[in-house]
Every structure is written in C-alpha cells, then in structure tokens.
Amino acid sequence: MMSSRITALVTAVVGAALTALAATPTQATPPDLSAALGRALTAPGVAASRTAALAIELETGAVVFEANVGLALAPASAEKLAVSFAALRLLGPGFRFRTEVVGDGELERRVWRGNLFLVGYGDPTLDSADLDALARDVQSWGIRKVTGRVVGDERHFDDTRTAPGWKPWFLGVESPPVSALSVDDVRVASANGSAAAAARVFRDALIRRGVEVRGGFGASRAPTDVLPLAQDLSEPLADIVRGMNRESDNFVSEMLLKELGASVARRGSTAAGAQVVHDELAAAGVPVTGVRIVDGSGLSRLDRLTARALVAILRIGAADPAMRDAFVTSLAVAGVSGTLKRRLDRRSTRGRVIAKTGTTRVASALAGFVRRRYVFAIVQNGSPVPYWTARRAQDRFVTVLARAN
Length: 405
What we know:
This protein is of the alpha/beta class and 405 residues long. The strands form two sheets. Strands 3, 4, 5, 6, 7, 8 and 9 form a seven-stranded mixed beta sheet that branches. It has a six-stranded antiparallel beta sheet with strand order 2-1-13-12-11-10, with helices on both faces. It has two domains: 4-94 and 238-403, DD-peptidase/beta-lactamase superfamily (Beta-lactamase, 3-Layer(aba) Sandwich); 98-233, CATH 3.50.80.20. It has helices at 4-14, 31-41, 79-90, 128-139, 194-208, 237-247, 250-265, 270-284, 307-319, 324-328, 387-403, and strands at residues 51-57, 63-67, 98-108, 111-120, 145-146, 150-153, 212-213, 217-219, 227-233, 332-333, 353-359, 363-370, 374-381.
C-alpha cells in the first residue's frame, strides 16, 4: 500500500490545476520550449517516424509539444493506464474481489459430510494468509472433519490462460496463468493447474487448523445448491491499482481486464474485457482512432495506443473526482517509488514527475504529469527499440518540462 508520504508527493505534483484538466487543448506552442523538447527527444537508433509525443499545459490547455500524436504504436505497459482508467470508472475505487468457500453436503455435529469448494472470483492478490483466514472461518462452524475433498472452482473466468499476441514464454515468466482462482507465490504444475494448486494450499490450511480432510484436492465446478461457509474480500481496487501501476504488475492487469469482462459484459474473457475498456475510453471522450486494446498488460504485440489517447486518459482521469485520487496516486514518483524509484532522481525532477513507464523489446513509453503544470506522453517503437537510448530521451524530455519557467 502507498505510504502517506508518497501519496502527498503525488498529490502535490498535480495540485489545484486538476480543475482545468477537462479544457480543450489550444494550439499555442511556445517556440523555445517546443524546440528544446524536440532536441531532447532526438536519440540515435530511435526513429522519429516511430516516435510519438505530446505535452500539454494543464491550466491553459496549450500544446507545448506534439509529434505524431495520432500515430498508433505499441504502448508496452502504458497500456495499464487504459485498463486502470476503465476499471476505476466502471467498478469504482472501493470495489473488492471476493473468494468464497461453499459446501456441497451437510454438517452433522462436527463432521462435514461432502466436499468443500474454494470458489475464485478473480482476486489477483489472493495469498496463503487469505486461505488461512478462510480455513479459520470454516473451523469456526465447529467443523473438525471433512469426509470429501477440497475442490477449486475457477469458472468465473474462461479457461484461456494467456492473451492474444503473447509469446509462448510469457506464461510463467511475465505472468502466471490468468485464472479466476490463483494464489500468490504458489507454484502450479501446468497452465491449467492454478485451481488445483489453490485447493491444495487451502486443504493444508484446514489441516493446520485442526480440520481433518479425508479426501484429496482437485479442480471442478461447484454445484449450484451449496451452503456458503466463508468469504474473503480483497483490499479496495484503489489499492490494487496503485500496486499494479507503480510496479507495472502484468498479472494484476490481466486479471483486472478479465474482471471487467465478467462484471460489465458478463463474459470473463480477455476479449470481453478489452472491448469494455475500448468502449469506456470512447464513452469518456478519449479519442480512440488508432487505439486497439488486446490485453491488459501491454505484453501483446497487437496492442496500439496513441500519444493523444494517453494524454486524454491522464487528463480525464485526473479531472474525475470519483476516481482522481486513486488514479493519480497510482503513478510512480520520480526518484521515490515503483518503476521510477531509481530514475529521474535529480533535484529538478525528483518528486516532481509522476508517470507510468512501459518497456518491451519493441516499445518504450513514459506518460504522466510534471510538477503542477504539464501532462505528457511519449511512445517509441523499434525493431527492437534501443532500451537505454529511448529511456534517456524520455528523461531528457521531462527534465526540460520540469525546468521550464
């Protein structure tokens, strides 16, 4: 969870100027600043034709720099801005994921005669401590023996564990299998092993709590006629989005995308969630020409965003009082937190830049706010894009903004 010190830093960066964010940008560009930004963005090995950038003054809406703002480019993890924007608008900052334990059978004195089902509803933060708490709640019913098995149910999402456009090795390296029932830091035997692994860990927790389980563990759907026994709720979505964006967590963003599909479109799939995000961007007034949402993390080679869309997402999200705090404070703080902790750690930028980073082999991105004055987005593509060179150009760009009078 973000400390109060970091939250204060983020709030100070944006400040009172947020009330002007919804204004339509004007085209008045200070020539000296624009030229300096253009020079900062020029980098060897990074093609200008595959680089997009936009910087806008918050209070006046004046465009201070623009290049290829409508060019559709692979966004890398800047994709997470679109997902968190849609999730906070549609689900709300207070939304909580749930995980339930239900029983198929009946309780006779201290014996549960039947199976117990651990039912997942897409909590990306579920961990062993949560399962231990669920086991304690089951024990509190007076249950000391279970005659059947412990079974994991992951039907809330579909059975696809990756996303379109992913390389095969991404699974297990860039993200665990995207299952509705997954336990943090618990290794799974196969792409479809998450539910059974969760059932195993829960069975072990029951045994540690003094509940004898006669049967084994496995994965299947729970029957409809069951008895609710226990429920775990995640932290609020605002906290989850902060962790996701600051640390650029691929798994959390993919789970959140599927939850958008499940909650809004009633289909817990990546494709359904992607359509929900695209539709919500359009409904909010984000220009979606050239925008293609395929996954939640930005790992997919098929994702596309524009600098214009990214700046609009940031401006509209920060101007919305219902989601402003959760959205803005989810960004990493230069020299202080997340993926910017060791970056832009100079007097002119430390604590004055908050942004979302993005890096893959073919894309590098940085999008966020500078001081109380500017909102910006930079996206660079290549085959591959030179990582360090691209990042240095981004850092030069925001440093010029931070030093501008």
